Amino acid sequence: MRTLSLSIAVVAALLSTGCVSTSGNSSAADPAAVNAGAAKAQTLFTARLQPAAGVVTSTPAEHQVKVSFPGITAFSHDGARLSDELQRQLTAVAESLKGIDYQQVTVLGHTDSSGQLTYNNKLSQQRAEQVMTFLQQQGLTTAQLAAEGRGPAEPIADNSTAQGRAANRRVELLISFDAETVAGVKHTVSTD
Fold first, then answer.
1. What are the pLDDT digits (tens) for 36-76?
2. How do 104-109 and 64-68 pair as beta strands?
């Protein structure tokens, strides 16, 4: 696993420096070049984020990376305030996105199943919006951020235990690296 991670980091570094090109002399309008550009941005982001402790990435679809933060308590019971640990990890995500072409970061807020469904849906939206605001403060642009509350609909642990409920009170980030974005529009994290 470590060798694979190292290989990905080396390929990403070679791609980002221009030492290796996956698109040859193709134009940006060439679908193969566009897909290679999206893959390059996605690979570079994943390689940059890899050293961050407590951050896990997966690829739910082509040109997407899902970032999750297992093993931490992201939010208190019945609260939307970000824990200090989650803030550190979100800062690592924002830093890893600097200078990389991406389309959008969708923040997915979740709750456990305690309480009323309507309340949990509202709370999960508040959690997603708090994370979105924090990412804006780290330099991500508002136009590239979206917040979605998922309530208790997508548990990752057993809601019948205190530990399971704590795990379900979480946030995930879905980062899209879109072919259209790579073809002509550069989205970066601002430094001001």
1. 667 788 999 999 988 888 899 999 988 999 999 998 888 77
2. unpaired
